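Changelog excerpt

This revision adds worked examples to the README so contributors can see how folded entries look when concatenated. The first example is reproduced verbatim below.
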Amino acid sequence: MSGEEEAPTQQQHQQPGQERTPDEPPPSPPAAAPSSSSSSPAAEEEPLSCRALVLTGYGGYDKVKLQVKTQRRARLQAGEVLVRVKACGLNFAELMGRQGLYEPLPAPPVTMGMEGSGVVEAVGEDVEDRRVGDRVIAMSRFGMFQEVVVVPADRTFPMPEQMSFEEGAAIPINYLTAYMMLFEMANVRPGKSVLVHMAAGGVGIAATQLCQTVPDVTVFGTASASKHETIAQGGVTHPIDYRTKDYVEEIRKISPKGVDIVLDPLGGSDTQKGFNLLKPLGTLIVFGAANCVTGQKKSLLAMMKTWYNQLSLNTMKLMQTNKAVCGFHLGYMAEDQLIDRAMRELLELYRQGKIKPRIDSCYHFEEVADAMRRMHDRHNIGKVILLPEPKKPGENVEKTEAADNKTKEEAATEEVKAEKD
């Protein structure tokens, strides 16, 4: 399939009473919208309308389209719950998925989205710890970008009373990723130092906050200059402007021996730099390849540069340098018990006031292109949220004041740098 080709709509057997628009793809497994197994036959016959963001093909922002699914209600399977989604989290994985660079996402047409929050509307058999009306955080490998979603009950987590739906949607992917890397892989301890790239992004802010829960941890954070005040207030000890300065040189000036932990979402030459920055017994964790994403569409040049400059090691080199290299990808994490435990820890930290998601901006489904563009252009400070409910006339996007202070000159400079990289 070419970068601009849309996937043809798949033909699927229609159940009685089910309708779809001509260009609508069949709902993905987690995107179905049944009701409770205890519903009456009349309720089950009532058609259900559901707004969803569907990736129709690989390419630019126009490939993500708002569609309305209309289908008959069906019975929930045992262990499932139906959630009315109130907010969804946008992640860099969706930007990569739109370009065909995210393997865990099925081929188009598919409803994207891995995290959200909402209210339980129905429960299936054998579900004992969820009730209709519960406010929950929900996770799925895909299919969350829609108004109603069916997920296994054990992939939902009760929200603290003081937590907003926007905060609930901002917790799972970013904070689980940061938590697993820092505490399960790198074993961060008092007195250690950590380099956090993209420190103003969702994972960057989560990692910084989690580092604050350990005494005397030094955080080096890369971000554009307009974001330094904000990330410094959030716990970054040494903000570094990656656009105008060599972050390796800046770190060496402060810490000649380097750092203990590097969290690398960039890939390519930055992975090599991160490895060289490690102190003996240090740990490099690669969890992304943001350097592959430059323009709106897939760039073969950027992919080739990232591949050509990737870190190449052998076991002898690791032995001689006394360093560790790890990789982390939440989408391939199959240890449900580990995820459950980490989520419980994170929600408890939230209740204690030790972590709190920073919401950069909220966009309605109709504005998904603007939301993706904001994240792609690195204008966000914190989490970008998508709202399933229709946008009201005259309603404007809510953004944090600091996130909107970027000048046109800074944005242009970042765009030039992305093309060079």
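The second example, added in the same revision:
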Amino acid sequence: MLIRVRSRDGLERVTVDANATVKQLQYAIAETLNVPVSQQLLSRNRALLLAKGADRDAASFTDMKNLDSSLSSLGLTHGAMVYLVYSGERVVAGPPVTPHGTFGKKMTMDDLIARQTRIERQEKPHCSSLSLDRDAANSFQNYVHQSLAFAVKRGGFMYGSVNEAGEVSVEFIYEPPQQGSEDRLLLMRDMEEEKHADIIAAGLGLRKVGFIFTQTVSQSKKDYTLSSIEIRQAAQLHAESEFECWATAIVKLEGNDEGGTDVHFEAFQLSDQCVKLYKEGWFVEDCPDLDPKLSRMAKDVVILSKDTRDVDNDFFLVLVKILDHEGPFSCTFPVENRQPFSSLEALKVHLGHNRNKPYVKRIADFHLLLMLSNYLDVNTDVPQLMECIQSQGSVPDGYQLIIESLGSDF
């Protein structure tokens, strides 16, 4: 039977007997693909290709560790996919070269540039880890899970801080106006509202640090980490940010050992080369028949000595360790641009539910503050409230009166 083998070199194929074991598959890979058995690590988990160092020793990558297990007992049938990482280097035969024109034909400058553009993996991210506030992360995934059933995509800008070690901490998620489908997320950005979000964050010593989005149930059944559409959107936002530690996080459903599903968070950075190529206009957008795990370039590039225009999206991804923490802000007020929309009536309910807390803690919710910014002076009042929240000082009576009066009509 035929087994598809996906590695850092792309997709290749080997043929083994229908009753073959893992060990026999390894020998077939060694003979066909020129990768020594001693250097091979195989798994059915595609995350193997993005794991580094000690991460490859995780239990999730030991599913093919028993070399005497038959491939059929592992669920591998004709045409099945396995993932391979290996140490060292190997020679990959390039495609046959067909000369064009006469010997000595002059090359254009575009030809020369294209032949010098090599797509290479970036080993280390600038962002060493991404930690999400638990309440903010739960609010985001609960809405997608319970209200949208992971049927359409949803996204949001992550706001937080980064320290000198490149550790990014996300404290809240702003969800702009948007429309999601099974494979696309259209952001209909309200730049005035986004400006208010930036001002609130700046008053708390925070900034935009990345973008988070969901993958749908239909996407989870496909063989890619990020689709070409997702790569382009992530590259656009990364390039716009001009922030070296900008991170991209995804949320998706994955099957578990009990036959159910779990919500899973992953974090990446796009490689510097990916962002650079996007800025220079190399990505081709309209390729309806292209496999979504590939991105098409406007010119030829070189990958492992092969000339091509179709790049495996995994070449552009750098895995980032993902963590969680308990931040200083609450996340119980209705989130902007969702159904039902946040309102002044929700403000009254929120203040009532938290009446036993100090006033500064009652309003320490980004989504509440974003709604209040529509009624207060965003350049004077909002920064003063942010100063109170950051210092955990008392909120002046005048502001308390204004906030209470906004919800008093209900």
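Reviewer comment on example two: Residues 95-104 have pLDDT under 50 and may be disordered. The longest helix spans residues 134-147.
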